[in-house]
Write a structure and sequence with these properties.
Blueprint lengths: L1 E2 L2 E4 L2 E2 L9 H22 L7 H18 L5 H29 L8 H6 L6 H10 L1 H21 L7 H22 L9 H5 L5 H8 L1 H13 L23 H4 L1 E3 L23 H7 L3 H12 L16 E7 L13 H8 L2 E3 L2 E2 L7 H10 L10 H8 L7 H7 L3 E6 L7 H8 L2 E4 L19 H8 L10 E6 L17 H4 L6 H26 L6 E7 L7 H8 L6 H5 L12 E2 L2 E3 L7 E3 L3 E2 L3 H8 L21 E3 L5 E3 L2 E4 L4 E4 L7 H27 L2 H6 L3
Parallel strand pairs: 5-10, 5-11, 6-14, 7-15, 8-9, 8-10
Antiparallel strand pairs: 1-2, 2-3, 4-14, 7-12, 11-13, 16-17, 17-18, 18-19
Helix pairs in contact: 1-2, 1-3, 1-6, 2-7, 3-6, 9-10, 12-13, 13-25, 16-18, 16-25, 19-21
Length: 704
C-alpha cells in the first residue's frame, strides 16, 4: 500500500525516522492513561476499589476511542493530537478533583453554566490555596503527560496507520464498553448499585466511585440530550404507617415548664389532619403523565400530620426568617454570642435538630428550608431550576403569607448567585441583592467581601419596619462564608477572639458568629423600638455547617467527628453524623416559657412547622418535612441516603440499623420498619425533581 508515494508496510507508514512508531505503545497509551487517572483519583479521594472492574473496562474503552483519533493522520498531526488529548483528559481529572475539594461535588458539564454565573473570581483565594496545596497530587496526575512530552517521539513515533487499523481499535473499544455494561448489570450488593446509578442523573459522587469519573461525565452528556426516564417503584404499601402518631408525643415532640403533658381540658384541641380539599385519586386517574400519576398516588399514601395545641399560636405575627451562612450551633456561647444564646435557650429549644449537607450546599440548604423539600442530588440544581421554569412554589412561606396579605421581602448581601433573583422572586419575595435594590458596603469598583450582616440589616430594616401590614422578611446572610481567614469580618472582634484557647481558624470562625450575633441584636433592637418585637416571630437556621473545618467544630464541641477531608468530600461513610447537629431558632418575645423539643428534625421540617404555627392552610402530605410539633415521627435524611429517625439510625454503607436508646424492636419488626423507611426515604428524594419539572403544585392548586 502507499500514501502519497510513500510505502506503507503492515499498514504503517515507513520512514527514515529512527523513532519509528512502536505499535503497542501507540495503542495502549490512552487506555493506560485513563486507568491510571481513575486509579489515582480513587486512591487520593479514598474511594472504594471494589468497583475497579467497571471503571477499568470503561477506562480502556475510552482510551481506545482516543487512540483511534491519533492514528490515521500525518506524523506531526498525530503527535499534536496525542499530546493535546492527553493534556485535556488529565486536566479534566485535575479540575474535577479540585472542584470536589472546594465545592464538595464533582462538576458535570450540565453544571458549567451555574459555575460560570457564580462569580468564581470572588473565591480566587480559596481556589488558589487549594490548587497550591494540591500541587504534589496534580504532578502525580500529570506524570504520564510529562513522560509523553519528554519521551513520546522516541518511543511512539506518531507514524500514520491505515485507517482500517483505527477502525479495528474502535471496534475493540466498543467490545470493552459492552463488557463494562455487562459488569454493571451484575447483581452488586447495596442500596445504590452500579446498575441503578447507570440509569440515574443523581448521586454523582456514587457514580464516580462505582462507574468512574469519565463514565459519569459521559452519562451526564447523554442525559442532557436524552433526559432520564423515571421508572420509580410505585408500591406505596407500608409507608402510610410510618406517619402514625408516636407512642409518647410529649416525649418525642414538645415539653415545657408549663407542664404540656397535662393540658387544660378546655378548650378542646383540634387534631384534624393538616390537608387541603384536593382529590389526588381523581388526578391520578385522569392524568396521562406517569410522573404526575406517581406523585398523586405517593402523596395519597402518605399519612398527614395532625393539627395540635400549637396550631395558629402565632397567627398574624410578623415573620423574619434567616438562613445563616456556614452556621453551627456548637459556636454559641453565652458571653461571646449572647443574642444567639438567648434565642436558642428561650422560645422553642430543639435538642435533635440537624442541618444535613446536600448537593450545592447553600442553594440546596435554602431549598430544604424554603420549599420543605430535599434537593435533587444532581443537576439541574433544584432551587435555581424553580426560577428557570417559573415553577409554582405554592407552599413557600412567601406565597402563603403573600396570599394572606403580608408584605414580603428578601435580602442577600451579594451578587446574583445561583440565579436567586429569578428563583426567590418566583418564591414570592420582593427580592433585593446587589444591583437589585440593596445598598452594600462598596470598595472602589465592587462590593466589599464579605459583607457585614449587621450592615445589611441596617440598610434594609426601614423597608418594612413601619409597615401598616404584617410583614415576612427573609435574609440569606454572608458574613459566615468560608474561608475563615483574618478578614474584614473578623477585624472588629479580633482582640476578643485572639484571647480564646483555640486555633486561629476557629477564633476567626467565632468572630463570624459574633457578627451574626450583632446583626440579630440590631434586628431585635429595631423591632423593639418600633413596638413590633412582641408580635414578630424570629426563625433562623444554618444553611450548612462549616464543612471545610471539621477540626473547628471538634474544638468547639470537644467531640470527634472525623476529618475535614472526608467532610469536604462528603464521604459520609467516615464521619460521625452528629457533626450535622445544629441549633434552630424559633423565638418570639411573647412566649412566657420555653418549649423543649426532643424529636429528630431538620431543615425540611421548618416550613410545615411554621405553616402550622401561623395557622395557614397547607397539605402536609405534599412536603418532605413534617410539623416538628405534631405527634408524627421525626426523620432526617442525609445526602448519602443514610437516615436518622426517632426510632434509630440507618447506615447505608453498612446496611445496619441501630435502634435509638429506649427503643425495643424484634428482629422482624426492625426488618419491616427499615424496609418501609428505606422506601419512604427514596420516595422523598425522588419526588422533588418530579414536582419541579412537572409543576405539580400548579396542576393541583393553579386554579386557586
Amino acid at each position: 500500500m502507499s500514501y502519497n508515494g510513500r510505502r506503507v508496510l503492515g499498514g504503517q507508514e515507513q520512514s527514515g525516522y529512527r523513532g519509528r512508531s512502536n505499535t503497542p505503545a501507540r495503542v495502549l497509551f490512552f487506555p493506560a492513561l485513563f486507568v491510571y487517572l481513575e486509579l489515582v483519583l480513587h486512591l487520593y479521594m479514598k474511594m472504594a476499589l471494589q468497583y475497579l472492574p467497571i471503571w477499568l473496562l470503561y477506562g480502556l474503552a475510552a482510551g481506545g476511542v482516543c487512540t483511534a483519533l491519533t492514528l490515521p493522520f500525518k506524523r506531526r498531526i498525530n503527535g499534536i493530537i496525542t499530546k493535546v488529548l492527553a493534556v485535556v483528559v488529565t486536566l479534566v481529572y485535575v479540575v474535577e478533583m479540585i472542584a470536589k475539594k472546594i465545592l464538595q461535588s464533582y462538576y458535570p458539564l450540565s453544571t458549567l453554566g451555574t459555575a460560570a454565573g457564580n462569580r468564581l473570581t470572588d473565591y480566587a483565594d480559596v481556589i488558589l490555596s487549594t490548587v497550591v496545596s494540591s500541587i504534589p497530587i496534580i504532578l502525580v496526575f500529570f506524570l504520564p503527560v510529562i513522560l509523553l512530552c519528554a519521551l513520546g517521539r522516541r518511543f511512539m513515533g506518531y507514524d500514520r496507520f491505515d485507517v482500517r487499523f483505527s477502525g479495528l481499535v474502535l471496534a475493540g473499544a466498543l467490545v470493552l464498553h459492552l463488557l463494562g455494561l455487562g459488569v454493571v448489570h451484575l447483581p452488586w450488593n447495596g442500596d445504590l448499585t452500579p446498575k441503578m446509578l447507570y440509569r440515574m442523573d443523581t448521586n454523582i459522587d456514587d457514580q464516580v466511585e462505582q462507574l468512574g469519573l469519565w463514565n459519569m461525565l459521559r452519562l451526564d452528556v447523554k442525559h442532557m440530550a436524552f433526559p432520564v426516564k423515571n421508572d420509580l417503584d410505585a408500591d406505596f404499601s407500608g409507608i402510610g404507617d410510618l406517619g402514625a402518631s408516636s407512642a409518647d408525643p410529649a416525649g418525642s415532640g414538645a415539653d415545657s415548664s408549663g407542664d404540656v403533658s397535662e393540658p387544660d381540658p378546655a378548650p378542646v384541641i383540634d387534631t384534624s389532619p393538616n390537608v387541603m380539599d384536593v382529590d389526588l385519586s381523581k388526578l391520578s386517574a385522569e392524568t396521562s403523565n406517569k410522573d404526575v400519576k406517581w406523585l398523586a398516588d405517593y402523596f395519597n399514601s402518605v399519612t398527614p400530620t395532625k393539627k395540635n395545641e400549637y396550631t395558629g399560636m402565632f397567627e398574624g405575627y410578623n415573620v423574619i426568617q434567616l438562613v445563616l451562612e456556614g452556621f453551627s450551633g456548637y459556636v454559641i456561647d453565652p458571653e461571646l454570642t449572647p443574642t444567639l444564646y438567648k434565642l436558642t435557650h428561650e422560645g422553642f429549644i430543639f435538642n435533635n435538630y440537624y442541618t444535613a449537607l446536600h448537593f450545592t450546599s447553600t442553594s440546596n440548604g435554602e431549598c430544604q428550608t424554603l420549599l420543605g423539600l430535599y434537593p435533587k442530588n444532581g443537576n439541574p440544581i433544584t432551587m435555581k431550576r424553580t426560577g428557570v421554569l417559573g415553577t409554582n412554589c405554592y407552599f413557600s412561606l412567601a406565597q402563603q403569607l403573600g396570599r394572606a396579605g403580608y408584605e414580603v421581602l428578601g435580602y442577600h448581601g451579594n451578587y446574583d448567585m445561583y440565579g436567586r433573583l429569578a428563583s426567590h422572586t418566583n418564591l414570592g419575595y420582593d427580592w433585593r441583592q446587589y444591583q437589585s435594590g440593596l445598598e452594600l458596603e462598596m470598595g472602589e469598583t465592587k462590593p466589599l467581601w464579605p459583607q457585614r450582616d449587621s450592615y445589611v440589616i441596617e440598610a434594609s430594616v426601614d423597608d418594612y419596619i413601619n409597615s401598616d401590614k404584617p410583614f415576612h422578611v427573609y435574609y440569606l446572610t454572608i458574613s459566615g462564608h468560608m474561608p475563615y481567614s483574618n478578614n474584614r469580618i473578623v477585624a472588629p472582634y479580633r482582640d476578643t477572639v485572639r484571647a480564646l484557647p483555640y486555633s486561629e481558624t476557629t477564633q476567626n470562625y467565632i468572630a463570624t458568629a459574633m457578627e451574626v450575633d450583632k446583626a440579630l441584636e440590631v434586628l431585635l433592637d429595631k423591632l423593639e423600638a418600633a413596638g413590633k418585637l412582641d408580635k414578630t416571630l424570629i426563625v433562623a437556621t444554618g444553611d450548612h455547617i462549616p464543612y471545610f473545618n471539621v477540626d473547628t467544630l471538634e474544638e468547639l464541641s470537644g467531640q470527634k467527628f472525623g476529618s475535614s477531608e472526608d467532610m469536604e468530600a462528603l464521604k459520609e461513610s467516615n464521619i460521625d453524623f452528629d457533626v450535622y447537629k445544629n441549633s434552630l431558632i424559633l423565638w418570639t418575645a411573647s412566649m412566657e416559657e420555653p418549649v423543649v423539643v426532643n424529636k429528630v428534625c431538620c431543615q425540611v421540617d421548618i416550613l410545615p412547622t411554621l405553616s402550622n404555627l401561623l395557622g395557614l392552610e397547607y397539605d402536609s402530605r405534599m412536603l418532605d418535612g413534617s410539623d416538628i410539633l405534631s405527634d408524627s415521627e421525626g426523620l432526617v435524611v442525609f445526602t448519602s441516603r443514610c437516615w436518622k429517625s426517632d426510632k434509630g439510625f440507618y447506615n447505608r454503607f453498612t446496611g445496619e440499623f441501630t435502634p435509638a436508646e429506649g427503643v425495643d424492636m424484634t428482629a422482624e419488626e426492625q426488618e419491616s420498619y427499615v424496609s418501609a423507611m428505606k422506601k419512604l426515604v427514596g420516595y422523598k428524594l425522588d419526588s422533588t425533581p418530579l414536582i419541579i419539572e412537572n409543576d405539580f403544585y400548579d396542576l393541583v392548586f393553579g386554579q386557586n
